[in-house]
Amino acid sequence: MQLEESRPALSIKRLTISGFRSFRPLEEQVLGGGMLSVGSQKMNKNMTTDEQEWSEGQNVVIGRNGSGKSNVLDAVEFVLLGPRFYTLRYEERQRLLHEGRPGAGVLSAFVEIVLRNPLGRIPIQGQELIIRRALGLKKDEFFVNRRRVIKKEVESLLETAGFNRANPYYVVQQGQVQALCVMKESQRLDLIKAVAGASVYESDKALANNALHETVIKRQKIAQVVQSLQNRLSTLEKEKLELQAYEQAIRRGRELRAAIARLQIFQAESQLETLDEAGTALAAEAHAAYGRKRQADDQFESTQQLFEARLAALSSSREYIANLADAKAQRQIKYDALRTELEQLDIAIALDQRRCHRAQRTLQRLRTETASLQSQLDDTLPPMHDDIPANNDFSANDQITQATHAVFTATRAANEAGQRFKAAVKAIQAHREGPLALARAESQTSRNAVTQAANNAALASARLNSARRDKQHCEDTLFLARREMDQARRALISNDLTSNSSRSLMPRDVFNGLETVEAMENQIGYHGPLAAHLRLVDEKYRQAIEAAAGPRLWHVLVDDDIIASKLLEHLQNRQSGRLSFIPLNRLSENGDDDTNFSAHILKHPDLVPLRTAALEEETQSSGIEKAFNLVFGSTLLARSLDVATRIARDYDSVTLDGDRVSRRGVVTGGFRDPTRSALDAWNHFANAKAEFLQAQNTLDSAQNELDAAIQNATRADKVLAEAEARRNAARRSHDAAHLDAAALADTASRLEAEKRAAVHERLATARRTLHSLLSGETINQHEEEQQQDRIASLAQTLTHDLGKRQLDLQQRLGFFVHSQSEFEDSMEISSASDENDKDIDAFDAREAEARLDRRNLIAAQLAALELEQKAESDDLLPTINSEAKLETEVNRARSALAQARSIASELDEELCDVSGRLEQNAALRAEASSAREEAALALSRRALDAVELNPNDAGRSIDDLLAELEICDSEGGAAVGHINNKALDDFLGLQDQRRDLSKRLSELDQGRDAVHGLVTGLDARKDAAVERTFEAVASHFSQVFQELEPAGRARLSLIRKVPSLPSQDSEMNAAGTTNLTPGEEALIGVRVQVHFPGDHRQVSGVAQDAVEQHQLDQLSGGQKTIVALALLFALQRADPAPFYLFDEIDANLDTTHRAALARLIHNQAHAQVNPAQFITTTFHPELIQNADAFFGISLSGAATGHKASRLLPATKKDALTFVSKATATPLHTNSGNVGAPFPSSSSMKRPRSPTSNVDDENNNE
């Protein structure tokens, strides 16, 4: 336990120098027994087999001059931020770097110290502390326990360990001891002040004096400003009164405007309420009217359908009756023809019977007469043959022949007359049938037209109903489309708010850049930010992922660097946002090199790779997987922050709470608001954006549907109008067809009457023709009689028969004339009968039999026709009755249709009236709304919302308020020209400024007093600290001087500035300190008084300054060194450091004093209280005899001019041998001994000998 307490609190264990001054780079020279690891590899080059650490006691470094001993101490001071190496310029950095071989300049160097910390003087975990300072051409890098830190952190650690920058004497270079010897009294005082920490007081005092000076200046300026403010306030007082009057008018005007606007709003709202009630009533009325209109339309359609059905039934009935009439007419014609033919056959048969009986009688008579005549002729001829010549017989025969020819001529004429009568009858029939057929065709055409018109009317009604239904459907679709569009707009607004709240967590430049890039077209190779691809296994890993990713969460993933350059160029052209890109083609397959964790890390129960634990596997793209490995592959997920800090030397780690520990020594984390998550913000933003796009598409589709619905509604209105037009046209066509049918019926009746008149006229003409023919036949009869008279002698019997036949012919002709009134064809039969009667000789019994058969057949046909006519008459009678009923129903339906049409027209007019009133109501409501909005806008624009209503304005009309407002405006306008609108603000502002400045003056006075007190207190504290430090240093100085020079005496004393006699003692002067101005220094220096053995000079009666100066000037070099070392050790004991580095401080001492110095260092190194580590360089054996560890420095490359130092361990024997040879060898240089632990005596320079021996100096004095 006692050994543990005697150890130094902090000591150097190992030292590594690379590239610093004479030490080569890339070869670490190890002091002691170890080699520090650089990175993750160990530099095993040039290691000695005898490894040794620095001793906690006294260490000695030996080597020839120029080998680099001082560079070792400079390296330590370089790491410990000594004053010479605290800040370095570029030239100084270059001088510190090793020169190296030609063409192989060194660009960096480092020095690393391993410190023992057994007592925990430096509050850091472990008993060792590793400090490295890396030197570059521009800046330095600092590492503490392999962790990158800043200079301030290293400085703080060193100050905690006891290294005071104000007392840099823990490293004593060559020349510093001599500087202490020649130091002036004021410089010694400054040194005491620095050790006492007076610089802190001085800096605070300087700051306080500056503050005091600034306070005085500010107070003067404030006093001037206050005076100017007072002058300005007196002027603004008058302007304030004028402004108050003006503001009163303005305020009254604002009250009036607010009252007018509120009254207008009230009136507009009242009007809106009235209009809303009226609009509701009108809407109900319109709804009822539309209902009645629909009922009327339905009734009209049903009535129209009934009318069309009745009309179609009537048309079919009339057509049926017309068909029956046509069939009846045809049968009647056939019946009449058959009847006529029957009558003709009856007449012909009767004639044949009479002709047959007459011919038989005539034949019998002729036979009788012939026989008689033959007998007479037989009796007469023989005698006449002689009397009558042959020519007479010839003439008689000729006359008979001529008479017969005349009869035949008359018969032929009668036949020709009959033929002309037939032709006339046929012409009459043709003239009758032509107009009748034309009328029938026109009637059928009109019937077809009426049917087609009815069909067109029905089709038009159907189309009209369909158009109305389409219009109603379009109106419903239009309403739904508008409702969906309103919903889409509300969704857009809500999504916009969500996206705004989400993107607030995203950097603005990143958001603008992403918006710009995503707005581009043809985004091939663009995958969005890394946050868009993260899929967490569980939400508990969210903070860890965000902490591990950091700003890389918003890095954009692209396929290659070409796409990245294009996107970057696009962003630069648009000057919108800034993005960082990760080209996937630049990533290796295995991701980050640090993803291969060691086995013990993977098996650790509190550690797991963050990539595999928190993120799901990316199956869509291997490039995204590589990006995940790049960002998260080298990070471990730790259970706690303690576990993370234990592995901080080798791995980056993060906890579930978002605390991140970097390999570089940076720890980040703390409280994280779980509601402000970047990943959640991105997800919300992406979802909001998707919903926004969907709502936008819905809005667009709704707008399209709305436009389509409007177009369909317009088209439906157009179709409805066209259907109405077609229905009206069909109705007009139907009415026109009915009128045409009526006209055709009249035309048919007229043609029938004309036909009958023409038939009667032609019958009369035929009768006249027949009478003329009869008159012609009479003439022929007379001619025949004359001819018969001429041939009476020859054919008396024939003439008699011809007369009878003529009479019979006349009777038959009279009968024919009597029967031709019943039927026109009887003339042909009569003519044929006459011809048959005339041709008696040509009578044929077979023809008569055929006529009889024909007559029987016609009679049968007539009987069948009569039966058919009777059946048709029976069928036609109910049809005619039903036709009458149908006509009545059609007329009734036509009346109902006209009534429904009139009702629909009235309802249309009513709907138009209601629509007009609704439009008028909407216009009035729009005007009222506009008036209310204008009044509300006037309130908000003029900021009249907060203006309270004046009770006096209640109940007043707008005209009264406007009149008063005009008066206020006129008064305010007249006064506005000379009114300072900012007078009151300026007055109040200046009052506030004056009050603030007055308060500021009092505060400055209080601050000035406080600063005076602070300066006084700082001076007192500084003086107390300086005196306290001086007392400690003076005490230690006397003690150390006694240890170095037992027979001598030495002391330190303060020199004060007091008004006293020069001969007074300093101790007496200290008691008489008076009349010092504030801030004036009372101490002006530190005096050194020493006495060596053998100095018997008397100093009484001489000024102390002169005696001291005389003594110090006349001391030898060794004596000055003793004084300087005593002061140096006194300062170190007053402000102890953990270890000390001395560079040949025994150079000017003799053997006795070197031994005393060695004992002093050895005793302090092994003291029980506050032991310290010492590292010294020397050429004398006294320090080596008491040392604990030994090191030598060899130098190679001296012949080539590229020297390289090398620090190697040695033994005490080797060190003594080296020193003994060095003191006995003349000075020369040998560069061939490169491999020896340290140069031999032949290659060493002889050390400088002391200037003189202390004893000799005493004798000289």
Automatic annotation (TrEMBL):
Keyword DNA-binding in annotation: no
Feature: compositional bias, Low complexity: 1237-1252
Residue spans crossing the bilayer: none
Any single Gene Ontology cellular-component annotation: chromosome
GO biological process terms held by the UniProt record: chromosome organization
Region (Disordered): 1226-1261
Domain SMC hinge: residue ranges: 524-648
Cellular compartment(s): Nucleus
Family matches, as Pfam families: SMC_hinge, SMC_N
Coiled-coil ranges per UniProt: 219-256, 349-376, 685-726, 883-910
GO molecular function terms listed in the Swiss-Prot or TrEMBL record: ATP binding; ATP hydrolysis activity
Keywords, alphabetical: Coiled coil, Nucleus
Keyword Lipoprotein set for record: no
Domain of life: Eukaryota
Family: Belongs to the SMC family.
Protein name per Swiss-Prot or TrEMBL: Structural maintenance of chromosomes protein
Upper taxonomic lineage: Eukaryota, Sar, Stramenopiles, Ochrophyta, Pelagophyceae
